[in-house]
Design goal:
The protein is an all-beta fold. It has no helices and 10 strands.
Length: 120
């Protein structure tokens, strides 16, 4: 079983930056190809923001392209999300999960997430 622990969220003004981390533990992590960052705003569904394969191929939703950068450290079983030029509409709880090639989450169990709040 894989456990996912997100951290790095906080309150930031519009235009600011945050770096999120997702630490994964568990014996099957080495079998995971793609990892993804997802977010859920109040009253909305949880959606994929960015994903990265084990080989470093990345994919982003249009709304964050050019502002967010996903990366991973396979040796540390950790995935990062560097968020720059933050906007109020980026406010959400951010989660990580293993992802299919199409970006769908794999694990049914989610971590606690990390809250990102962007003030205008």
């Amino acid at each position: 079983q894989v456990q996912l622990v997100e951290s790095g969220g906080g309150l930031v003004q519009a235009g600011g930056s945050l770096r999120l981390s997702c630490a994964a533990s568990g014996s099957i992590f080495f079998r995971i190809n793609a990892m993804g960052w997802y977010r859920q705003a109040p009253g909305k569904q949880r959606d994929l923001v960015a994903q990265i394969t084990r080989g470093g191929i990345t994919n982003y939703v249009d709304s964050v392209k050019g502002r967010f950068t996903i990366s991973r450290d396979n040796a540390k079983n950790t995935v990062y999300l560097q968020m720059n030029s933050l906007k109020p509409e980026d406010t959400a709880v951010y989660y990580c999960n293993a992802a299919t090639d199409s970006g769908a989450p794999i694990f049914r169990s989610w971590g606690q997430g990390t809250q990102v709040t962007v003030s205008s």
